[in-house]
Amino acid sequence: MGQIGEILVAIGAGTYLGMVGGINHVLNHVVMKGLLFLAAGMLAYRLKSQNIEKFKGIGKVMPFTSGCLAIGVLAIMGLPPFNGFISKFLMLYDDIEAGYWYFAALMLLASVISAIYYIRLVRTVFFEKYEGPKVKEGPITTMIPLCILTCLTIFNGLFPETALNLAKSAADYVAVQGKIEVTAIPQISITWPVIIIIPAIGGLLAYFLGKKSPKIAGWTAVIGMSAASIAIVMSNEKYDIYSLSFALLIAGVGVLNLLYSLGYMSHGHAQNRYYMFFMLMIGGLIGVATSNNFFTFFIFWEIMSSWTLYFVIIHEETQDALREGFKYFIFNYIGASLALLGMLILTVNAETFDMKIAASHLANLDLTTISWGIILMTAGFLMKAAVLPFRIDYQMHPATAPTPVSGYISSVLLKSAPFWLIKLLFILGGAAAIGKLGMAGKAPVVMYVMSWIAGLTIVGAASMALIQKGIKRLLIYSTVSQIGYIILGLSLGSTLGLTGGLLHFVNHMFFKNLLFLAAGAIMVQAHAHNLDEAGGLGRKMPYTMTFFMIGAMSLAGIPPFSGFTSKWLVYEAAMEKGQVFLALLSLAGSVLTMAYFIKFLHSAFFGTLPKKFENVKEAPWTMLLPMGILSALCLVLGIMPGLPLNVISKILKLMNITSPEFTLFGIKTPLGAWQVGVILILMLFALVLGIIFFLLGNRKVRYTSTYTCGVSDLEDDDIRAQSENMYESPDNIIKKLHKTLIVPVFGNGEEEQK
Amino acid sequence: MNIAKLAFNMLIFPGGLFALVSSLLLMGIDRKIYARLQRRVGPPIYQPFIDVIKLLQKEILVPRSANYIVFRLAPLLGFIGMLVAVVLIPISGVYPGIDKSADLLVLLYLLATPALAIMVGASASGSPYSAVGLSREMMITLAYEIPLLIVLLTIGMKTGMAAGNFADFSLSHIVTFQQQKGFSDF
Asked: If you average pLDDT over residues B93-104, what whole number do you get?
C-alpha cells in the first residue's frame, strides 16, 4: 500500500518527470510485487500456512524460491542494484525538483520504516532455524516465471535505460493528451566499469564454484580480488589520483583479508556465501571510490553499506549477530537516506549528476539551498564514520561479525566517509559554499562543529575502549576514536590538517586491520572471546604477538612507528589553528590509547598460561602472511612517511591546497619538524649503547618461579591478573561519568551487552 | 646531517657517556640533599655509581611465567627513548641540539617511552604483583600526562605568540626565547 501511495505522490506532483517516475515505478512495481507474491505464495503453498512464524528458516530448505523472494524484498526496499531503486530515485528527484522536499523526506522516512519489517522478513526466512516438515522446491513450471521476474528485477536495476524509455514513451503520450510540458529527465544511466565487474563476477564465481569445497571458494575470491587490483593499476589514466589510490588500497587490503579468511573461516559454515557477499561489498566500495557521478556514487554507496554489509556481518547467524547486524543495518540505512536527500538537493539545483560540472556550478547557485544539501550529506557521511560521542554502540559496526570482515569494515569501509567528506568539501568546493552560512572565527560553523564532534569522539570512544572486556569491542571503540583523528584533521581544513588526516587515513587502515587480524587469530586458535578468558598466549603464538605489538605501537603512536607521524601532524594542525582544547583532547586520547592497548597486551598475551591453552597452536600461514605484510607496511610507512606524503601532496594539489615540506624520511611544518631518519639513526646508536651495557654486566640468566610473596600453594591460574582488575580507579571514573552524563540522556548500551 | 657528528652526540656528548655520568652524579647529589633535609648523613655522592656497578654484576633473574624476549628487551626500549630525548634537548650556549629534526611534541612522546617500557616489561614478567604495579603506573601516567600536556602546549603557545604565530614547538626557538626573556616569562 505504501508503494502505491508513493506512486500517487509522484504522479500527483503533476510534472512530466513525476509522470515518468510514476509510470516507471508502476512498471517496476508490477515486476517486484509479482515476484514477491509468486515466491511468497510458493512458500506458503509448500508450508500450508501464511503465518510468518512458519516461514522460519525456510530459506535453508527452499533456497531458490526464497532467494527470489529475498531479491524481491531488497528491490521493494529500494536498494540498488535492483529495479525498485531506480524508480524510487526518480520520484524523489521529482519531488525535490517540484519543491516538495518534505514529501521526499516523508518518503525516505517511510522507506526506513518499511526496511525494518522487510529486513525482519529476510531474517526470518533465512537465518532462523527451520523446524517444519520436509518440503521440496516448487515444480519447474513455477520456477520459470520466478526466474524471469528475478532476472527482470536485476536487469532493470543494472540497466535502467530500457525500462525508462518505455515509461518515457507512455508519459509522452499522456503529456500530449494532458498538455503537460515535456521536460528533460535526469541522465539516469549506469556504467559498470571493469574494476567493479571483476570483483562482482569473482564473488559470484566463488559462490557457485565453491559450493562443494570452501577452499576453492576462498582461492577464487583471492584470485578475483588480485585481478581487480591489477585492473585498478591498469586503469590509472581514467581516474584521478585520489580515487585511484583509495581504490587500490580497498582492493589490496581486500586481498589480504580474503587470504586471511581462508584460515579464519576454515571451520565455518556456508563459506561460499560469505566470500560472495564480501566480494560484492568490496566491489561496491571500489565503486564508491571511483565514481565521478553523484547518481552512480549513491548506487555504490547503498550497495556497499546496506544489504551486502548486512549479509556479511550476520554471517555467524547467532542471535547476537542478528540483533546487532539489524541495528547497524537500520543505522546505515538512515545515514544513507540523509545523504541521499542531501545529494538530491544538490543535484536538482545543479541540474546535473556529473561532479565536475556540479562543482563548477556551485558558485552560481542559491547558496542556502545548496548548503543544506551539503550539510545533509555531511551528516550522512559523519554517521557512516561513526563519529558522534554518545551511544557509540549504535553506530559501531557489530563485534559479532566474522573478524576479517570486522577488520575490513573498521580499516577500509568506514574510510569511505572521510574520503567523501574530503571530496565533497575540498575537491568539489563544498567548504566554500557552507562557509556562506556562517563563520566561527576563520572556519565555517559546520566545520567548526565537526571538529568539536571529532575531538569529543576521540576522548569519549578511547575512554570507553578502556573499560571494555570484549576483544573486538575494545578494538571497535578504538576505531571510532581513531577515525575521530581523521575527521578532526580534515575539519581543520588546513594544509597540516588535511595532510595529517589523509596520512592517518592510510596508517590507520594498516594498523587497525593488523590488530583485528591478530585478535582474530587469538579468537580462532584459543576460542577466547573476551580478555578475561585469554592470557599467556604470547608463548604459544609468538608471531601473532609480535605482529600485534607492532600494530599496537603504531596505534599508540610510539615513534618511529606509523601512527606517530599522522597524529603528530593532527596535533600541530590543531595548534596552528589555535584550537588548543582540541589539541589537548586529541593528545589526551593518545594517552588513553596507550592505556587500553597495554591492557589488551597484558590480558591476552602476557601472564601465566591457563591450562586450557596448553594445546593452542600458532595460526596457519594464510593468516600469518597477511599480518606479516601489514606489519611490514606499518614499519615502512613509519620510517618513510615520504612515500604516502608523495601521493598526498598530489591529492592536495587537486584541492588547490599547498602541500607541506617533506622528504622521504621526514616532514617539516611551520611549528616544528619530525625527521624520522635522524631520529632512527640516533635510536640505533642508543640501541648499540644499550646492548654494550647488557654485555658489560653479568650475562648469566637464572629462571625463577613467579614471585608470590612466599605463598607456594597457588596454581598458575590463580595468580593471573584479569583484565577487569586493571586500572580500577580510572575505570570507575569513566563508568561513573558514563552513568551520569550519557545514560540519563541517551540510555545505556553497555548494560545490554553484558 | 653528518653521521659522525650524530654518533658523537649520541655516544659522548650530550648523550651516552656525559648523560650517564652527569645523571648518576645528579642523582647522588639529590639523595645527599634529601638526606641532609631529613637530618641524616646520607650516602656518599658516588653511591649511584657503585649501585650501577653492583647491579651489573648480578645474575639476571627471569620468572618462568615471563615472556623472555619482551621481558629482556623492554628496558632497552625505555633506555633508547630517554637517551634520544637527552640528545634532542639543546643546552643553551653549549649545545645547539639537533634542530629541525624533532620538536616538543616528539619529545613528549619520547619522554613517555620509559614509562611505557616499564609497564610492558612488568606486564611481560607474568607476576600478579607486576600487574598491580603496571595498573598503578598507568593510573599515575593518566594523571600526570594531562597537566604535562597543558604545560608543554602553553610553552609552545608562548614561544609562537612572541613571533606572531599561534604556536611554535621548535626546541631551538623555545631555548632562544627563554634566553631572551628569562624563565620567569613562561
From this structure: 79
Instruction: Provide the CA B14 distance to its chain's centre, in angstroms.
Output: 13
Q: At A72, which amino acid appears? A: G
Q: Extract the C-alpha cell encoding A166.
A: 518505455
Asked if the Cβ–Cβ distance from A674 to B11 is below 8 Å, we say no
CB nearest B79 (choices: A545, A576, A686): A686
| Residue B81 and residue B31 share a domain | no
Res A137 pLDDT > 80? no
Q: Where are chain A's structural domains? A: 2-178, 191-290, 385-754
Question: Is residue A129 predicted with pLDDT exceeding 60?
Answer: yes
C-alpha cell at A459: 576522548
DSSP A670: S
Residue A45 has pLDDT above 90, yes or no: no
Chain centre to alpha carbon of residue A673: 33
Residues 677-706 in A contacting B (C-alpha not used; CB under 8 Å) = 677-679, 681-683, 685-687, 689-691, 693-694, 696-706
Return the pLDDT at A212.
83
d(CA A305, CA A328) in angstroms, rounded, equals 10
Residues of A in contact with B117 (CB under 8 A): none
Task: Choose the closest CB to B149 out of A588, A602, A668.
Answer: A588
What is the domain range of residue B27? 1-58
State the total domains in chain B: 2
Residue B83 sits in the same domain as residue B110: yes
| Cis before A660 (ω within 30) | no
Estimate to the nearest angstrom the gap between the alpha carbon of A135 and the chain centroid. 39
Cβ atoms of A488 and A455 within 8 Å: the answer is: yes
Is the complex ipTM higher than 0.95? Answer: no
d(CA A99, CA A87): 18
Number of H helices, E strands in chain A: 32, 6
Cβ contacts (< 8 Å) between A660 and chain B: which residues? none
Question: Which tens digit of pLDDT belongs to each residue from A587-599?
Answer: 999 999 999 988 8
pLDDT tens across A516-557, in order? 999 999 988 888 888 888 888 888 899 999 999 999 999 998
CA dist., res. A252 & res. A589, Å (int):
30
Stronger pLDDT, A342 or A399, i.e. the higher one: A342
Q: Check whether A264 has a pLDDT greater than 50.
A: yes
> A241-264 vs A495-526: helix axis angle to the nearest 10?
10
Kind and range of the H or E element at A518?
Answer: helix A495-526
CB contact A721 to B (< 8 Å):
yes
The closest alpha carbon to A108, from A121, A95, A125, A127, belongs to A95
Nearest to B166 by CA among A504, A444, A672, A485: A672
Distance of CA A575 to the CA centre of its chain: 30
Cα–chain center distance at A6: 31
- How far is A703 from B66, CA to CA, in rounded Å? 9
